[in-house]
């Protein structure tokens, strides 16, 4: 009978130990993920929720990250502000004209789907937003030329969600 009780106690303690270990491991994983990883998880979940077109991967942009530039850029130039909305495979404005050296702010919102606004040559991109959400990005257009801006979500760029930024 002593052996039976000893085994029973060991089984109970082992189960309790596993339970405590398992729960603390999950908590540590959540803490280690941090806010950035949680945002990536939210982005992934939002992409899944907008349908099949957001799930298609455009390999030309795979793995690229674009920093955002804060508005506290001090330069003696005009400030240009553009309000642009993203729809399924289109932007509300397909051409933006600014002067070289202008500080440009893009106020971007989505009225239909999950989108962002990206210009590779200036290394700027808005956050990805879902329907009804908005974000903004500010940068200095310090290189004259004609540049493409686009949505980097899934195959949106390949499906024509592009525009032209002209820096005169």
Would you mind describing this structure in some detail?
- With 168 residues, this protein is an alpha/beta fold.
- The protein folds into two domains: 2-49; 59-167, Sandwich (Immunoglobulin-like).
- The protein is 31% helix and 27% strand.
- The protein is built from two helices and nine strands.
- The protein has helices at residues 2-49, 52-55; strands spanning 79-87, 90-91, 95-98, 103-110, 118-119, 124-125, 134-140, 145-150, 162-167.
- The strands form three sheets. The chain has a four-stranded mixed beta sheet with strand order 2-1-4-7, with no helix packed on it. Strands 3-9-8 form a three-stranded mixed beta sheet, with no helix packed on it. Strands 5-6 form a two-stranded antiparallel ribbon.
- The longest helix is centred in the N-terminal third of the chain and has 48 residues, at 2-49.
- It is elongated.
């Amino acid at each position: 009978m002593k052996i039976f009780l000893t085994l029973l106690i060991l089984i109970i303690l082992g189960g309790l130990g596993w339970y405590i270990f398992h729960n603390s491991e999950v908590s540590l994983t959540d803490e280690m993920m941090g806010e950035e990883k949680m945002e990536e998880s939210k982005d992934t979940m939002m992409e899944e929720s907008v349908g099949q077109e957001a799930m298609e991967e455009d390999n030309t942009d795979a793995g690229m990250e674009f920093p955002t530039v804060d508005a506290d850029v001090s330069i003696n130039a005009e400030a240009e502000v553009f309000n642009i909305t993203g729809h399924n495979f289109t932007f509300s404005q397909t051409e933006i004209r600014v002067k070289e050296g202008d500080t440009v702010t893009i106020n971007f919102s989505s009225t239909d789907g999950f989108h962002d606004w990206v210009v590779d040559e200036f290394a700027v991109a808005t956050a990805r937003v879902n329907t009804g959400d908005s974000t903004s990005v500010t940068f200095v257009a310090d290189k004259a030329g004609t540049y493409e801006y686009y949505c980097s979500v899934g195959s949106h760029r390949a499906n024509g969600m592009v525009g032209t930024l002209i820096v005169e």
